[in-house]
Amino acid sequence: MKLLLGCVNSAVSLVGYDWDSKTTFWYCPGNYLRVCGLQATSERLWIASDNTLTSLGGKERQVICLPGPHENLAHSVKKLGQDALGVADTGNSRVLLYADGRCVLEYRPLDGWECPLPPDAIHLNDILSWDDGILASAFSYQPFTFLKQGRPQWKQDGLGVIFYLRRHGKRTVSSIAASGLNCAHSLTQHGQDVYCCSSAEGSLYRFTPAGEGRLAQSQVWHVTDDHFLRGCLRVPGGWMLGGSSRRHVQGDARSGMLVYFLADSGAVEQGFVAPVGEIYDILPWDDDLMRNVAQQILAMPQLPLEGDFPPLCAVTF
Fold it and tell me: CA 193 → CA 33, 207, 235, 261, 312, distances in Å?
């Protein structure tokens, strides 16, 4: 089974990983392309990162610049409906929906606050189509704590939430569908259930619809004590999950970058990827799509970034 790993804050930004042999067969250095969230469509790979939504594949690269006022810190990108793409505009605490290259709708979990929102108020980071609206995950529903404390206390246990967002007229109707997570990431639907990584806890949660826009916690799998768990892909027999090097911890934070397979039986297997790095998203590998993507990356100039990066990887798959 071949996987595409999207890596953030890492020396490489895209990784082709063969789970069966536990080996990397292709990568893109982080100084050619910056990546956070990934979404594949029939002909394009969509990438959310920084202030842009970028697509590779097709005839040429396309770049959409996201609007302010704050730095966007764009995280996840997901298909929402038949023709729209949603991007988590983390810096402005909103979800932007794009169709045909233009923004057509916004969801704002904090719609109705009279004061101007601070940048990155709740660390909104992932989205998912749900019922007549969307779900969105966030680290903490405490948008103004930084005014008293200097910075948000996101790493405290249980502050993470999943919002249920709908549109009513020109406003967003926001409610909390689930709470109690620790750095919520990677919203995924399988069947009728919703799955979410409690990243700092190293666990995967399953939620069951409970009516009136609520989600009831139905199962928790504790996967790791060593990694920040983020990136979630359903595969036959279980889940592929990304294990990222921990940050902001005491002692040795270089816990490495791994892929975990969580079987439906509860058994956990791991595959080593790199000594250090962070996985944000995991997609199935598509040879035809990625051959075109890799060729376009080969033609891109280096970004003016500091740090040590590996050489550009030629197309070998």
Answer: 34, 6, 15, 19, 40
